[in-house]
Write a structure and sequence with these properties.
Bound molecules: S-adenosylmethionine
Oligomer: single chain
Distance between the termini: 50 Å
Shape: globular
Structural class: alpha/beta
Number of helices: 9
Strand content: 25-35%
Radius of gyration: 18 Å
Largest sheet: 7 strands, mixed
Number of strands: 13
Amino acid sequence: MNRPEYIQERDGALWLTEVESGHLKLNWRLKNVLHVERSPFQEIVIVDTETFGRALVLDGVVQTTEGDEFIYNEMISHVPLALHPNPKQVLVIGGGDGGAVRECLKYPSVERVDLVEIDEQVTSACRTYLPELAGQLDDPRVRTRFEDGVQYIKGVENQYDVIIVDSSDPIGPATVLFEEPFYRSVKAALRPGGIMVCQSESPLFYLPVLQNTRRVLNELFPVTRTYWAPVPTYPGALWTFTLGCLFDPFEDSGWTRRIREESTRHVTAELAEGSFALPAFVRRALGVVE
Ligand code: SAM
């Protein structure tokens, strides 16, 4: 197994170096490199880290770890699913590790979850090495398609109650998932009263991406909101999610009672409510007073 160049032996230990910027690198001490392959879209690596357990790494960027994936996957799923009064048809674009799908299946009203992941090899590697995440993909309510989310959603109209865009960073195959034409197609694919959410990156390291996402969704949707969560293994640990809603779900002040907190390790009703209290610098950067 050829080790990628960003995994090196140093002082008798194996280290993965994730480059965040020219000035910041994250070093992960590894127990082992479990899997390395190159797909038509990206390099797929599964490592076993000393601190956060097994992790999926795409093109040198850590996507998800056993140690803290529950925070990200619960926040990107439970918040929009609880905001929607009766979600039945759900679409997850990206999310090939299966974590967001696992959380969606916790809602009894959900009749179907369509997973549209561009890279089949990501999902098969996660099935093998990260069963905690990918283990629910055989649920009869799940339908998996391996294709570009942008192509899939073109021409889909009025089909989904909730659409979750669980993409990697805006580099490589995911770049198009942060662009206006894609969000416009997402809006068209929603049923009346539908809600979409996307991971909108770090306000510390990717502020222009968050600002652009918010600007585009503001123009497309009557109601948009941004919320946040601490994800320790993501750069700066402060991560955001942005909603586009075809109605105002916040008019129902009791929406958090629908959070399935008996099945979660991070999100609770109070925490979901509080996650919309944005740090002052983020509010200012987005020009919002919410
Ligand atoms: N939570 C992670 C994050 O925030 O970085 C992302 C998790 S998930 C692994 C991201 C998935 O999006 C990857 O498996 C990648 O292959 C998929 N993806 C990237 N571009 C895509 C596209 N255009 N259509 C569908 N899936 C895409």
